[in-house]
Amino acid sequence: MTSMYHISDLKKFNRCPRLFLQSQQDEKMPFYSYIRMDEAVSDLAARKLGVEKPFVGALGDDPSLALEALKDHDWLMKARFEYGGLRIKAPFMHRNGDAWELYFLFTGLYPHNNDMELYCDTVWVLEQNGIRLSDVMIVHLNEAYVREDELDIDQLFIVSRSLYNFNNNPTIPFFEEIRKQMKDPQETIRKMSECTAETLREPVRTNKCAGRLKCRYYDSCFPNEAEAEDDSIMTLIAAKHRYQMEQEGLLYLRDADVERIEGSPQQYAQILADRSGGLFADKMALQSWLEGTVYPVSFLDFEWERYAVPPYKGMKPYQVLPFEYSLHILHADGTVDHKVFLSVHDDRRELTESLIRDVPEQGTIIAYNAEGAEKIRISEMAEQFPEYADVLLGMNARMKDLQIPFISGMIYDVRMRGSWTLKQIMSMMEDPGYSQLEIRQGMDAVFQWRQLDRDEDVNKDEIIDDLKKYCGMDSWAMVVVYKWIRKCAGL
Ligand code: SF4
Questions:
Q1: What mean pLDDT comes out for the span 222-247?
Q2: In this predicted structure, what is the pLDDT of residue 66?
Q3: Which residue, by CA, sits nearest to atom 1 of ligand 1?
Q4: Selected residue with higher pLDDT from 451 and 375
Q5: Residue whose CA lies nearest to ligand 1 atom number 3
Q6: Residue 437 has pLDDT above 70, yes or no
Q7: Which of 183, 67, 178 is nearest to 130 (CA)?
């Protein structure tokens, strides 16, 4: 019997045969989306396209069902087709005379050409089934849409005949590009069916293992790396030649061949830390970063949910809804106050007003990754509630990013093991930190909050308590790390 594969299998095989094989053998992991999609985006898109009386396919359908539906339906949704060992799902098909229009659904904002494999293989399977396509389009969410009281489906989506370039301009003709890039996948499918544990070579590190997305099998492929010492050369950040250096016996950060590193300030800080007994601190640079810090110093952290389809008035697709903040306030005499706000459902106005009450009118505000998170959240609040814009933007003007000393190479401790997260840095401190919490990751906090927001049958008091402790730890960790930085700066 011929094996049947999905496009996702093909994609994995092309990335790495070992990854493909391991994922075939693994039990399917439950999937938790970072993006909230309570509403079935495909049903909303069907309304945009004017889909009427469709044939609707389902997981595991025999492909003869979709072929049969082509005879007496004008619309097909999620129809399953197969050819040559490859199984695909066609999101939407609409009869156009004796041909068909195919619509892909992209649930993000700007479809680029990184999913071309999926588009090409889908068209290939349809055409091998004798289906003539007159046009191929892509339906995606409209970044410019702002929701009013009701969802406006027509404004929510854009139907495009182009993919978008890096500047998010629609410049790549979609159907033409598919024609250009489409190829027969059968040779790859044959190799996939012959792929077994016996035919695989030992894992070899390539840029497919730990690029933008670290492979989920990385630790099992390279177990030695997880056990490496804190100052191993393997912790050298974004260093293309670290594997080669390790094989040549340059085992530690202090041994790194500076001719073969990319030369980032972080890399130099790592090497200098190992050459100085474990810690590198550029006192002058740290003092300069700390200069101008005014008491009381407020340490601020937000938690938020991100929705694909805006659920509330004034929100855009993929806009976030802050639901919690924690604020630790460090006074000049060393005392610390703590304030926390947690809402269930949409309480943006209350959260904004509470924040304005809680943040002292004077003093520096500190956040970890302020530029990429807290400052953006506060600017969004200023846009949503213009009557508070002055005070909110004033907070942003007083904000310092605690990540800067780390990512600009002013300070590094080998116990950070090549990671610059607040949790990793906190793990070096003499403070129980996150280890005693029920919720330990930002996304866990979001998944827990979702249960509250959806009114699920859960112990709500316990979740609220855990969320407060988790977010509270993020702002407390900043107090601890800030004090440590001051000490390292000799202050
Ligand atoms: S870590 Fe690398 S070698 Fe191992 S499965 Fe992933 S991509 Fe393949």
A1: 88
A2: 97
A3: 218
A4: 375
A5: 203
A6: no
A7: 67
CA 228 – ligand 1 centroid, Å = 18
Helix (H) or strand (E) holding 475: helix 460-488
pLDDT digits (tens, 9 = 90+) for 384-429: 999 999 999 999 999 999 999 999 999 999 999 999 999 999 999 8
Separation of alpha carbons 45 and 167, rounded Å? 25
The pLDDT value recorded for residue 106 is 95
Tell me how crowded residue 488 is: count the other CB atoms within 10 A of its CB. 18
How many residues make up the chain in this entry?
A: 491
How many Å lie between the centroid of ligand 1 and the Cα of residue 241?
18
327 forms beta bridges with 300, 339
Q: How far apart, in Å, do the first and last CA atoms of the chain sit? A: 73
Residue 228 has a pLDDT of 87
Q: Is 89 in the pocket of ligand 1 (CB under 6 A)?
A: no
What Cα–Cα distance (Å) separates residue 8 from each residue in 17, 33, 137, 286?
13, 17, 21, 47
Atom of ligand 1 nearest to the CA of 215: 6
Confidence of residue 447 (pLDDT cuts 50, 70, 90): confident
Percent of the chain whose predicted confidence (pLDDT) is above 70: 95
Q: Which atom of ligand 1 is nearest to the CA of 221?
A: 4
Which residues, including other chains, have CB under 8 Å from residue 339's CB and lie 6 or more apart? Answer: 326, 327, 329, 358
Q: Which atom of ligand 1 is nearest to the CA of 204?
A: 3
Exposure pattern of 381-418 as b/e (b: 16+ CB <10 Å)?
bbebbeebeeebebbbebbbbbbebbebbbbbbbbbbb
Q: Is the CB of 21 under 6 A from ligand 1?
A: no
Sketch out the chain's domains with CATH numbers: 5-191 (3.90.320), 228-277 (no CATH), 278-491 (3.30.420.10)
